[in-house]
TrEMBL record, chain A:
Pfam families: ABC_tran. The keyword Transport applies. Residues 2-236 form the ABC transporter domain. Keywords: ATP-binding, Hydrolase, Nucleotide-binding, Transport. One of its GO terms (molecular function) is ABC-type amino acid transporter activity. SMART domains: AAA (SM00382). Its EC number is 3.6.3.-. It comes from Anoxybacteroides voinovskiense. PROSITE patterns: ABC_TRANSPORTER_1 (PS00211), ABC_TRANSPORTER_2 (PS50893). The keyword Transport applies. The lineage of its organism: Bacteria, Bacillati, Bacillota, Bacilli, Bacillales. This is Putative glutamine transport system ATP-binding protein. PANTHER family: AMINO ACID IMPORT ATP-BINDING PROTEIN, PHOSPHONATES IMPORT ATP-BINDING PROTEIN PHNC.
From TrEMBL, chain B:
Gene3D superfamilies: MetI-like. This is Putative glutamine transport system permease protein. One of its GO terms (molecular function) is transmembrane transporter activity. Residues 18-206 form the ABC transmembrane type-1 domain. PROSITE patterns: ABC_TM1. It is a multi-pass membrane protein. It is found in: Cell membrane. Belongs to the binding-protein-dependent transport system permease family.
Length: 242, 217
């Protein structure tokens, strides 16, 4: 589904991603962890070309992401994305936030788009907020709307870029619950997070990054019990025992 | 004391001038808002040649006196066979000139919209233009309402440039009445009052809009 081969990325002189090789299968939930500045977010943002790669090969859903003949808008229809700061459209209601892309990108009629939107709002547990504006919602509610917005495009892949980092602790759980449900239903997910409990419970595979490299890839049981890399061990000891 | 007989005796002229000033202002407002928005997007879009066109438009137009731009339409283009009546030439000049300032205002607004908005819109599959139109511009325009109000007020006042080329606006009729009656002070006081009749409600309207939108956020 997602295939990185020898991918490198530079921001000017800064080498953000170094020789990335990573394959993610359909239905897999891959959680990317690592210290800040390690390139986790950049890696995820390359998948839908919010960031462009400098060299190497990146194939998503059978399409070469950085090929100049690729219709990126078409590829992006199949990839939902959830951001750290939600990025809901403040001038639109919750319902309008969710129906915009299905109507304008897929050409779904308004009535059907609204029904789909309501279905996903039920799913994330806040159908009563359909006509509210995002500012009237708590962080956790906003992030659940953002997830519903992504799902309404019926994507094959969902990307999560630190979805709970901007939430206050009380609302983190409700967002993680929605993500867990999604994972159980077989969605292909790539998740950047610091929520180790979530990673341990839901991930099929943990990818540990540091300084732009993938240092370790392992199933969660193995990774958390006995990380192979010294750097991963240090990272885990710091975030788990504080 | 003001000589109100001038106002009463020349009421039709004042009214015609007022109507034309209003008409020129409304047309130029719509036109400059449209051109300004396009130029602002040109300056920001990730396509180099468009950036150059947008930048060239703004830098050339806003650094030339309004009257010269009006002359382009009034005497310049007719010299190569494209003719306008003086009202149209004046309104076109005013539109083109004001658009340069509006472009800068809107550009500032677009840049003030958080980057994540464009990312969210694009990652959902919207094209750049769709993202601009449905997501970025509505927010940008809201942000720039106060400076935009200034531009619109300037536009109404600048429409007096039509008077110079016999554009049948308030200023033109003011000059006409003055030269017929040999009265200066009173005639122009009434002209000024008519301008205020346009600009003060505009000012209040912008203020009200600002407050209403501030609430809806």
């Amino acid at each position: 589904m997602i295939y990185f081969h020898q991918v490198n990325k530079h921001y000017g002189d800064f080498h953000v991603l170094k020789d990335i090789n990573l394959t993610i299968e359909q239905g897999e939930v891959v959680v990317i962890i690592g210290p800040s500045g390690s390139g986790k977010s950049t890696l995820v943002r390359c998948i839908n070309r919010l960031e462009t790669i400098t060299s190497g090969e990146l194939i998503v859903d059978g399409v070469k992401v950085n090929d100049k003949n690729t219709d990126i808008n078409k590829l992006r229809r199949n990839i939902g994305m959830v951001f750290q700061h939600f990025n809901l459209y403040p001038h639109k209601t919750v319902l309008q936030n969710i129906t915009l892309a299905p109507m304008k990108v897929l050409g779904v009629p308004e009535k059907e788009a609204k029904e789909t939107a309501m279905y996903y709002l039920e799913k994330v547990g806040i159908p009563d907020k359909a006509n509210a504006y995002p500012t009237a919602l708590s962080g956790g509610q906003q992030q659940r709307v953002a997830i519903a917005r992504g799902l309404a495009m019926k994507p094959k892949i969902m990307l999560f870029d630190e979805p709970t980092s901007a939430l206050d602790p009380e609302t983190i759980g409700e967002v993680l619950d929605v993500m867990k449900t999604l994972a159980r239903e077989g969605m292909t997910m790539v998740v950047v997070t610091h929520e180790m409990g979530f990673a341990r419970e839901v991930a099929d595979r943990i990818v540990f990054m540091d300084q732009g490299r993938i240092l370790e890839e392992a199933p969660p049981e193995q990774f958390f019990a006995n990380p192979r890399e010294e750097r991963a061990r240090l990272f885990l000891s710091r975030i788990l025992n504080h | 004391m003001l000589d109100y007989s001038i106002l009463i005796e020349h009421w039709d002229m004042y009214m015609q001038g007022f109507a034309n000033t209003l008409k020129a202002s409304v047309l130029a407002l719509i036109g400059s808002f449209a051109i300004g928005t396009v130029m602002a997007v040109f300056r920001i879009a990730p396509i180099r040649p468009l950036n150059w066109i947008g930048a060239a438009y703004v830098e050339f137009i806003r650094n030339i006196p309004l009257i010269l731009i009006v002359f382009v339409f009034f005497v310049g283009l007719p010299a190569i066979g494209i003719r306008f009546d003086s009202f149209t030439a004046g309104t076109l000049g005013l539109t083109v000139y004001t658009a340069a300032f509006i472009a800068e205002v809107i550009r500032a607004g677009i840049l003030a919209v958080p980057k994540g908005q464009m990312e969210a819109a694009r990652s959902s599959g919207l094209t750049y233009l769709q993202a601009m139109w449905y997501v970025i511009l509505p927010q940008a325009v809201k942000i720039v309402i106060p400076p935009m109000g200034n531009q619109f007020i300037n536009l109404v006042k600048n429409s007096s440039v039509l008077g110079v080329i016999a554009g049948l606006d308030l200023m033109y009729f003011g000059d006409l009445i003055s030269s017929e009656t040999f009265v200066t002070f009173d005639v122009y006081i009434f002209v000024a009052l008519f301008y205020l009749l346009l600009t003060i409600p505009l000012s209040l309207g912008v203020g009200a809009l600002e407050r209403r939108l501030a609430k809806s956020r």
